[in-house]
Amino acid sequence: MKRLRSTDPPLTTGQVVCDWIEKYCRIPEGKFVGQPVKLRDWQRAEICRIYDNPAKTRTAIISFGRKNAKSTLAAFLLLVHLCGPCYKPNSQLYSTALSREQAAVLFHLATKIVRQSPELLDIVRIREATKELFVPDIGTYYRALTAEASTAFGLSPVFVVHDELGQVKGPRSTLYEALETATGAQENPLSVIISTQAADDNDLLSILIDDAKAAHDPKTTLSLYTAGEELDAFSDETIKLANPAFGDFLNADEVRRMAQMAKRMPAREPEFRNLILNQRVEISHPFITKALWVACGEEVEDLKGVPVYAGLDLSEVADLTALILIGKIGRVWHVHPTFWLPSTGLREKSIQDRIPYDLWHSRGFLRTTPGASVSYEYVANHLRSVFGQYNIKKLGFDRWNMKHLIPWLRKAGFPDAMIEQKFVEFGQGTASMSPALRELESLILEKELRHGDHPVLTMCAANAVVEGKDSSNRRLSKDRSRGRIDGMVALAMAVGVAPIRDTAFDFSAMVG
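Structure (tokenized):
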């Protein structure tokens, strides 16, 4: 770095870091391999955002589409803390990834940079077998870790890179939590999360990004390059929003080819949206797209006084049970969901399914039943209460469970005449489900459905996958779906027993 004249303003830490990278680092691979690094303006801005934060950054989240050199940027920052201007003597540095292959990416990039830089090669020792870098003169040490959580306990990192954290499914990662809670002995630890977005709102990276968006913690910086779902997904302008290197070291023609392929083949579109446009899109094709579902997320109104139709999806012993009520107000059907899980083992089930059931329960979105199962007796008693509050016209449920529920309905006080009149057996095959799904799809497309953005129902909607040859021969598939879809099954049954196109309740008729 050149000596500054006395009239020059002092450099910030971010500027010092940028200058060090350009002076000592080399491009590790690709067309310009071995050449000195010339940071782009957006890369400099990202580095300065991290290191010039007045609150002293504790966690930096950087997210954009694939092949924008995320891991290379992370490798530069790793070397900055291993032997550059931000090193701390005798400190530990780590990177994390789900798989051995992904963990090796950052290590090999850092190794290539070191081997091509005479200055760095003179001081950094490379241990290929254990994926470690070591600087004997100052005692700094780096190791790449995978999702074997036991290796993370007992460590005391000052710097951590969480590479492709978006691959973590669900809200928790034992490795992430172990490293993030291991920094307590350090004065100013730094964690850099650098990844394409996760597919689901309930995945760990999505939760961290949403919390950062809310700006609760000034020590967390967020740079999110993503394209809005309402934009033309296949235009250059949209692609550039999620890919700062587009047309530079990201091959624009190759990305355009991917865009055209996704446009021709809808099955490829979710993958394109997630990996290239950096949107939260499940790569397996859902029954309904996230954008359409979100568009129906307005607040719901009370259903008392209007004709109500319901769907009930009973669980297998300890699984999720769903009851969905729908009622029409004006032109719009308003959805009121209720979900249950057994109270016993709720925390363990949250970890097993990687879904925040315990958090939803604490916030009132999920109810629990006593014991280790959702009993038919409990459900029958709840239904008696619901029938007392609302004008329930029809309730559809899986005919497979009919014989098990009827005795408990009688015990709960339902007369046989009411059971016969109100409760409708609803098959789960294509004969019953296809018309219901067609109506439900139409309601969502025409924004004639409101679900109030209920998180449990939204999870079910994101998971729901249909199987069948065409629109007249479809059903929701629990086997092919990624997770729980019980809420969507119950919603489809409610729609299936309701006169969707025949009646509407008009509040104006009550005036006077």
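The domain at 292-508 is CATH 3.30.420.240 (Nucleotidyltransferase; domain 5). The radius of gyration is 28 Å.
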